[in-house]
Amino acid sequence: MMKTLKYSRQRESIKDCLAGRTDHPTADMVYTCIRRQFPQISLGTVYRNLNLLSELGEIQKLTCGDGKDRFDWNTSPHYHFVCRNCGAVLDVALEPFGELLIKAQEVFEGQVESHTVFFYGCCQKCMNLT
Ligand code: ZN
Ligand code: MN
Predict the structure, then answer these.
(1) Could you tell me the pTM of the whole model?
(2) Which ligand ends up closest to the CA of 72?
(3) Cα 47 to middle of ligand 2, angstroms
(4) Which residue from 21, 26, 105, 109 lies 20 to 30 Å from 44 (Cα-Cα)?
(5) How far apart are CA 126 and CA 65, in angstroms?
(6) Could you tell me if 41 and 31 are in contact, meaning their C-beta atoms sit under 8 angstroms apart?
C-alpha cells in the first residue's frame, strides 16, 4: 500500500517535471529534475514511469531517430523539428495534415490510424551561432 502510494506520487512528480516544458526532455533530463524531490530515485525507475505514463496515454513518447527517447506532456497530435546540430527537439506550429492519412489509406490495404512527422534541419539558435 505504502509502496503504491509512493510510486504514484513519484509518477505525479514526473508529470509535474514535464508539464509545460517545450524542450521534450530525455529520461536523463527528467531524472535530473525529479532528483531534487526524490534524491533516492534511480534512473531506471524514472525511465519505467515515463514509459508507463506513455502507455497510459498520459504523456507522449517521441522516438526521433537520435537513439534517445524524448517525452512530451502534450498528447495532442503535433509535429516536431529535430536540430541536426544540437539535437534540440522543438514543436512545429503546423496543423496536422489529415489529408495525409486519407492519401495513405487510399493506397494501403490495412487500417491506417495515425502518422508521425519529424522535420530535420538546423534550429534558429544554432543558425545564430554561425
Ligand atoms: Zn540546434
Ligand atoms: Mn511536442
Answers:
(1) 0.86
(2) 2
(3) 19
(4) 21
(5) 19
(6) yes
